[in-house]
Amino acid sequence: MNLYTKLTLLAAILALNTACSPSNSNDSYTKHSEDSRTPTFTERDSSRHPNETLAFFEIKDDQSVVEIWPGGGWYAEILAPYLRPNGTYYAAHFDAQSSIKFFRGMRAKFNQKITSNPSVYDKTIITDFAPPHKVNVAPVETADRVLTFRNVHNWMRSSSEQAAFNSFYNTLKPGGYLGVVEHRAPNSFTQKEMINSGYVSESYVKQLAKNSGFIFSGSSEVNSNPKDTKNHPKGVWTLPPSLRLGEKDQEKYLSIGESDRMTLKFKKPN
Fold it and tell me: What's the pLDDT tens digit per position in 91-139?
């Protein structure tokens, strides 16, 4: 084989590899927000793996994406600028009129965050999500993706988890995906243990999705943490970043790191 033939073959192989590669490389999400992210947020990338997680959920820049309960905006800082040119980002946040002071305060801070940086967030659409009563997070069957990060245990406290999943199903287009990241409990945990600890079993999340009509599409271990025993005095909040025990055994819990988390993907049938 002469040199020209070898070079031609190598070029063909490289072209094939490029064509077969995912449209989003592992740095394609956070690179859009390098200059606007909160420094303390970026420090947690090693625990939350945003690029790998969003790649698993098959997020593309021309999609309509709904994030459920974005809290302080950790993922909003990544998704809003990424989707801004060609897609749509919905932040389905706490009810602005909630009777719960914490919810109202977090929503007010998030609103301020959005309005204070229009060059990043001017196209962000904020909606209210308060299951089981306020569940219209976006127009019916318009979203390509619905994402929720560490929220299922919160809805379980008010027995509204099924209403939440039903809402996600109604919001998604046929063929759209629901992405769930949640603190992972052993499947042996009871309902009470899940609510008290903040850890939820994969089997329970899969059942909620199935009840709504979703088809399980796959899982990733990108957010797993084998050091997490799931047996802590203050549940998942014993671990960082909450560290609810304060300085007591802090080094121990810092060495464990953030919780072991499931990363699941569900499809709404075509």
Answer: 999 999 999 999 999 999 999 999 999 999 999 999 999 999 999 999 9
Task: Please give the Cα distance from 155 to 165 (Å, whole number).
Answer: 10
Cis peptide leading into residue 70 (ω within 30°): no
For 175-205, how does the pLDDT look when each residue is reduced to its tens digit (9 = 90+)? Answer: 999 999 999 999 999 999 999 999 999 999 9
The H-or-E segment that residue 89 falls in is: strand 88-93
**3 state SS of 149:** strand
* CB 236 within 8 Å of CB 193: no
- Measured distance CA(72)–CA(157) in Å, rounded: 21
Compute the distance between CA of residue 30 and CA of residue 9 in angstroms, rounded to an integer. Answer: 34
* CA atoms within 13 A of residue 248's CA, in its CB half-sphere: 7
What is the C-alpha separation between 23 and 25, in angstroms, rounded?
A: 7
The DSSP call for residue 259 is P
DSSP-derived letter for residue 264 is E
Beta-carbon contacts of residue 199 (< 8 Å; ≥ 6 apart): 153, 183, 184, 185, 189, 193, 230, 235, 236, 259
Place of tokens 């060059």: 119
Helices (H), 172-236: 191-197, 202-212
Question: How many whole angstroms separate alpha carbon 117 and alpha carbon 36?
Answer: 9
Residue 74, CA atoms < 13 Å, CB-side half-sphere: 18
d(Cα 201, Cα 209) in Å, to the nearest integer? 13
Q: DSSP for 132-154?
A: TTB---SSTT-EEEEEEES-HHH
- Total-model pTM: 0.89
**Integer Cα distance of 15 and 11 in angstroms:** 6
